[in-house]
Amino acid sequence: MPEQMKSPEGFKVVGKDGAALSVWDEVEGADGYKLQFFSADDPEKCIKSRYAQGTRKMIMGFENGKEYLVRVCAIRYERDVERRGSYTQKLSFVPKCVKLKAQGTICLNIGEKEQLICERGEEISCEIRFRKHRDRCR
């Protein structure tokens, strides 16, 4: 019987905008890797599994501000059967947005010029209000 592969070392995960970037060290003899994702609220229920050929993988589709867990194992194929190595410990990550998202209302002081840039190329309906000195924009 072949020896079981070790778990990947150097495993790290970073939360991105709605995503997670996972990196780890190569495992000798591995054909690929399998990542499993869990909600921190229910750490025993796998909510997402993904495969990777290399030692890094960006996975999209996570809710910003919510805590998740991830683990990875090496896999090898023997006669078309997937053999898994040991999983790493689960690591925690929280996806977060580091860019300011546009709101529906933009406040400008009188005399300021407005310039709106649309990242998606779609038309956006927004409201521009000018405020008087010491007034609050509502």
Key attributes of the depicted protein:
Immunoglobulin-like; five-stranded antiparallel beta sheet; mainly beta
What does this structure look like?
With 138 residues, the protein is mainly β. It has a domain of 82 residues: Sandwich (Immunoglobulin-like), CATH 2.60.40.10. It is 0% helix and 45% strand. The strands form three sheets. Strands 3, 4, 6, 7 and 8 form a five-stranded antiparallel β-sheet that branches. Strands 1-2-5 form a three-stranded antiparallel β-sheet, with no helix packed on it. Strand 6 and strand 7 form a beta hairpin. It is elongated. About 4% of the residues have low confidence.
Low-confidence stretches: 116-121
Rounded to the nearest angstrom, the radius of gyration is 23 Å
Helix-strand makeup class: mainly beta
Distance between the termini: 71 Å
* CATH fold type of the domain at 12-93: Immunoglobulin-like
Q: Give the ordered list of helices and strands.
A: EEEEEEEEEE
Helix content: under 10%
Number of helices: 0
Biggest sheet record: 5 strands, antiparallel
Topology (elements, then pairings):
Blueprint: E1 12-16, E2 19-23, E3 32-39, E4 42-52, E5 56-60, E6 68-78, E7 81-84, E8 91-93, E9 105-109, E10 127-131
Parallel strand pairs: 9-10
Antiparallel strand pairs: 1-2, 2-5, 3-4, 3-6, 6-7, 6-8
A few lines on this structure:
By secondary structure, the protein is mainly beta. It has strands spanning 12-16, 19-23, 32-39, 42-52, 56-60, 68-78, 81-84, 91-93, 105-109, 127-131. It starts with 11 loop residues before the first strand and ends in a 7-residue tail after the last strand.
